Amino acid sequence: YFKNKNNPRFIIEFGPDLGILTDYISKQFKPEKYFLIEPNRKLHHSLSKIKNTEVYEEYNQIKDLRDNSVDLIIMVHVFDHILNPKELLFSLQKKLKKTGSIFLVTHNTNSFLRYLLDKNWPPFCMYHPQLYNERSMLKLLEICNLNNIEIVKTKNYFKLSSYINAFFSIFKINVNFNFGPVIKMKVGNIASIGEK
Q1: Is the dihedral of CA 135, 89, 75, 151 positive or negative?
Q2: Counting C-beta atoms within 10 Å of the first and last residue's C-beta, which end of the chain has fewer, N or C?
């Protein structure tokens, strides 16, 4: 998904959590600097062990990072939580180099799962002040002067039991099964990629 022609040297990732994607990206691209924004301070020690990372609690701590200096910005299930998405995107777009990319993964309000679960769809909660679909993400990225925009449905990897649990939740039956093989399926997320 990452559209940089060369390996990104400077990366910002919001909400790396346990650092699974961070570790993969670090090994894949070997960036010179990998800035991580993670509000959960309990995760900072383990994240700081990933090569060339600098871990911060909030974006304001690196807001003064030089404009036109970042190759890649990553947000996986973070952007739905942002109160002022347009303002943040404009700010981040300035940080990107001319060939830099932004990569966002969000829930998709047009997904089959959203219509299947209706008002019981888990993303409908107070922690998601904004929700998106392909059309709204395209419009937002265009407004924020991003180019070569691509929006694709992503695949999730869950145990069979997770899908069964979700099925029962449609009927308001709470079960917590934990079994079966991991199954790859498009369940309702989109990746949005834009270049400066």
Answers
A1: positive
A2: N
Closest among 75, 73, 76 to 94, alpha carbons compared: 73
Say how far apart CA 191 and CA 174 lie, in whole Å.
Answer: 29
Q: List alpha helices for the chain, DSSP H.
A: 20-29, 44-47, 85-95, 112-117, 134-143, 160-170
Give the residue among 179, 109, 193, 188 at the shortest CA–CA distance from 151: 193
Assess whether pLDDT exceeds 80 at residue 170.
no
- What share of the chain in percent tops pLDDT 70? 97
Give start and end residues of each alpha helix (H) in 68-177. Answer: 85-95, 112-117, 134-143, 160-170
Report pLDDT digits (tens) over 71-110: 999 999 999 999 999 999 999 999 999 989 999 999 999 9
Residue 115 CB partners (closer than 8 Å, separation 6+): none
What is the three-class DSSP state of 47? helix
Nearest to 78 by CA among 113, 128, 30, 116: 128
pLDDT bracket for residue 1 (50, 70, 90): low
**Cα→Cα distances 108→104, 136, 151, 193, Å:** 12, 10, 11, 15
Q: In which band, very low, low, confident or very high, does the pLDDT at 116 lie, cut at 50, 70 and 90?
A: confident
